[in-house]
Amino acid sequence: MSQVIHPTAIIEKGAVLEDNVQVGPYCVIGSKVTLKEGTRLQSHVVVKGRTEIGKSNIIFPFASLGQDSPDRKYKGEDASLVIGDNNDIREYVTMHIGTGEGRGETRVGSHNLFMALSHVAHDCIIGDHCIFANGANLAGHVEVNDHAILGGLSGIHQHVRIGSYAIIGGHSGVDKDVPPYANVSGKRARLGGLNLVGLRRRGVDRSIIKALQQAYNHLFDESVESFSNRVESLANQENTSEVLELLNFVQNAQRGITRKE
């Protein structure tokens, strides 16, 4: 199948469209854009800037991808947005390019779902198989690891990291790092425990879930010694790879870790 370009679409000279790309009515494609094989833009989609969109993505009406960052420090540097393969990008989703003072690149992985009105700001890094519910918003420089779920209308503070398999409750404001496998929620998000439902749905072995539960109980028991001592004592034990991932995450936190009340 060759390209299908609606006659009302505007494609600027220099844009690269690979085989089987479909561009629907009233889309606008900038001169530095690359659309890879099988990607479909339904209608009224705007893709600007130095933006590369991978294979077999579907982009719904009124999404805007690759616009300049509104960060006041951005002065027109040559930055980019890179999106992987097989993402569903729903209505009114916005994703901005990076900035010169950041990574210079906003990067989105593959097999993600971005529901309507979700936003990925400048210099963010998104992994694979993540779900952004309606109105989930990232500030700049946020990192979201694989299989994370962000609830509707959640807001993530700049420079925060969201660990793999974590789930953020709807309407939550997150201003500290969220550990892998965690369940957090609240106006100022607080740790609710392990994301047991998500782990079971993913078919994680019971022995791994048990090890993670024990590690969480140990790390976040505020009644026992200091947090740094709890981290150190857990690190001195024989641990699964999942617990080691958790330990590495908390040991490298720059904004602090989301805790219990």
Describe this structure in words.
The chain is α/β, with parallel strands linked by helices. The protein folds into 2 domains: 4-141, UDP N-Acetylglucosamine Acyltransferase, domain 1 (3 Solenoid); 200-251, no CATH class. It has helices at 196-201, 206-219, 227-235, 241-251, and strands spanning 4-5, 10-11, 16-17, 22-23, 28-29, 34-35, 40-41, 46-47, 50-53, 58-59, 64-67, 80-83, 88-89, 94-96, 105-108, 113-114, 119-120, 125-126, 131-132, 137-138, 143-144, 149-150, 155-156, 161-162, 167-168, 173-174, 182-185, 190-194. The strands form 3 sheets. Strands 1-4-7-10-13-16-19-22-25-27-28 form an 11-stranded mixed β-sheet. The longest helix is centred in the last third of the chain and has 14 residues, at 206-219. It is elongated and about 65 Å long. The model has no long low-confidence stretch (mean pLDDT 96).
Task: Quickly describe the structure.
This protein has four helices and 28 strands. The protein is of the alpha/beta class. The strands form three sheets. Strands 1-4-7-10-13-16-19-22-25-27-28 form an eleven-stranded mixed sheet. Strands 2-5-8-11-14-17-20-23-26 form a nine-stranded parallel sheet, with no helix packed on it.
Rg over CA atoms, rounded to whole Å, is 20 Å
- Mind summarizing the main beta sheet? 11 strands, mixed
SSE class: alpha/beta
End-to-end distance? 56 Å
